[in-house]
Design brief:
- It is a single chain.
- By secondary structure, the protein is an alpha+beta fold.
- It has a single domain, classed as NADH Oxidase, CATH 3.40.109.
- It is built from seven helices and five strands, in the order ααβααβααβαββ.
Length: 200
């Protein structure tokens, strides 16, 4: 698929079939994720791959209010055979920028204008979404409810120095759309209101 087709066709899929996903495509998505920009080549990310029915079910059990009685959105999402949690490590970035070639001698978080560890990991997630689209698969990026994060950490032994920045689901899109997203109700903003040339 041409790159512009990938960009144009990528969308958030909220209803999946139960057809398995080729593990080679999942591996490629993960490899592509590691090609995302990352400050200082810190590579301060890791990816929790859940691709067995048991692990996927456990994820929804610890994140959903009632996985046994799902609403339309949850019922569609729970069928995705692959769930990936991209996790960022602030500690890895702080350590990297205290190394000799970066010129800082401490690990003061105040030096960072934005949390690049989260931003870089989010860009890695986008590459996963694009890889799925490129191979004719559906995907979605969602968050973990803050009140459920401790349960997710405990269920999957996520280390303290890594933080999930979201969740990527991958699978074959179902024939029926499922729960409608905001893009079905809100128009895309015109470019002339988004791009400011030379000054705002």
């Amino acid at each position: 698929m041409e790159f512009q087709d990938v960009v144009r066709r990528r969308k958030m899929v909220r209803n999946y079939s139960t057809e398995p996903v080729d593990p080679d495509i999942v591996d490629l998505a993960l490899r592509n994720a590691t090609r995302a920009p990352n400050a200082g080549f810190s590579q301060g990310w890791a990816f929790l791959l859940l691709d067995t029915p048991e692990d996927v079910a456990r994820f929804w059990d610890v994140t959903a209010d009632d996985a046994a009685h799902p609403d339309t959105w949850l019922a569609g999402m729970m069928k995705a055979p692959v769930v990936i949690l991209p996790c960022s490590s602030k500690a890895a970035y702080l350590r990297r920028y205290a190394e000799g070639d970066k010129g800082w001698t401490d690990q003061d978080e105040a030096r960072w204008p934005k949390p690049f560890w989260d931003m870089d990991t989010a860009m890695a997630a986008l590459l996963m979404l694009q890889t799925a689209t490129d191979h004719g698969l559906g995907s979605c990026f969602i968050g973990i409810p803050p009140v459920r994060e401790d349960a997710v950490r405990a269920a999957f032994a996520i280390p303290d120095d890594f933080d999930p920045v979201g969740v990527v689901t991958i699978g074959h899109a179902a024939e029926t759309v499922g729960a409608a997203g905001s893009s079905t109700k809100r128009p895309r903003k015109p470019m002339d209101g988004l791009v400011h040339r030379g000054r705002w």
